[in-house]
Predict the structure.
Amino acid sequence: MANTSEIDFRSLVLDAPLALDSGRELAGVQVAYETYGELAPDRGNAVLIFHALTGDQFVAGTNPVTGKPGWWERMVGPGKPIDTDRFHVICANVIGSCLGSTGPSSAGPQGKPYAMQFPVITIRDMVRAQMAMLDALGIEKLHAVVGGSMGGMQALSCAANFPERTDRVLAIATTARHTAQNIAFHEMGRQAIMADPNWQGGDYYGGEAPAKGLAVARMAAHITYLSEEGLTTKFGRRLQDREAKSFGFDADFQVESYLRYQGLSFTDRFDANSYLYITRAMDYFDLAEEHGGLLADAFRGAKDTRFCLVSFDTDWLYTTADMREVVHALNAVAAPVSFVELSAPYGHDSFLLDVPALDRVVEGFIG
Amino acid sequence: MNLRADLAKIAAHVPEGARVLDVGCGEGDLMEALQLQKGCDARGMEIDPEAVAKAVSRGLSVVQGDANRDLADYPDGAFDVAILSQTLQTAQRPDWLLDQLLRVGREAFVSFPNFAYWRMRLFLLRNGRMPISRHLPGSWYETANIHHLTIADFHEFLTLRGVKVSGSWFFAADNEIGSGTGPFGANWRAEHAVFRLRR
């Protein structure tokens, strides 16, 4: 994992212990966050963006960990669809992560990293931490919450559990429930990490990190973020820096080389235990189950909240059918909901990439 | 904004502040007019994703969906008014669609092109070919209009289903040529019609 200890993440510490869905409490929770644009004197122009599984608080500008542009640079900034000349954009690192917010790599009560002593958290726990962060920042009501993928789960969870905190909910390429297939892919990734001898039951801090296991987990997950069409267009069966197949197990194919690179570079910026905890939170996510089994009941309190839901036709991870279930539930409570399935070739990752139609929808909905 | 003649008529008769579903709302012209002029809570359904994106970017609440299937997702009586403008003749099952419309809406406005309009009759009589008009563009093999109907057909259907007509308006070339339950010669004089219906 990258040496993030030298980076001074902007953060705050929550006053009260955080009561978690597991029944446990987490005390002294640190929430790292970034803001973009000025907060209006009436504090009414705040937009909270939730990041995805391996995302972070660096939505725009330059990410100090990777040195690359923020993950939603194309969407957030002056004159961009989420216009920081008008809106005060806040993005926090989720708890359980490893970029300044409290997670398994943070020091626990005994002063050494929690590792597997960190409590299992849920999507709702992540949202609770961010609502407490807003309390600390003195922001009562948001103009909008926005998120894609796991960020979209947090946006829906926020609408269900804290409907009074936001006027608008924009959820992109997401779902109200992790399916068996979603869980299966995550479990494969977790088992790859745990099978790495360096994992050591999670107590690897100070030693070698289980980078190989984490890289395999990332490779498998990365495939689910792309469409078959996207992979075929980008790589096809083309060979990597060679004229012929090697009759060996080097990365003969470009797609192999690409995935190996994706896996390895990921281990530079992400903690394996964080990956275990966050994927677990996503697997536990079932908004209907949380609210007595009926998804519509999750949104009873949000019938005056404006919703905009977006799916992509090539996203097989969180499908249009998944999103339609959310639309159906919102219709059942008569919430003002918009829904559009956009056409884009990039699969699940479309929400991060160049899809001009998404820009128009986001800009129009955020207003 | 200049609304199409049938939409302007519908807008004029939708009650103030009604909860409205516009089925096949396009880019949301009628919804916007209803919100601005009548203070309505307007929702839309539209099959074309680009039209939905435009409507959403206007700040309207529009769900991308296929009326032939997705109207079933709305609860009974979810809306005061359900609107189906110039879409009935494109439905896979117009009878099912009208049942759904009158299930989700306490009342409905329906507008459609009248296939018995005299110009259509004349076109067919003289040319022996499927008529093509402003309201029914496109050749028979590519048209979205797969269930042509006439005002007389519609009246008969409503009687069979026990649907009450609380208003009807008839147009030729965007001019209103009559209204009421049965003006003389509407079936051949009207190019298109608007009906207000109740269960």
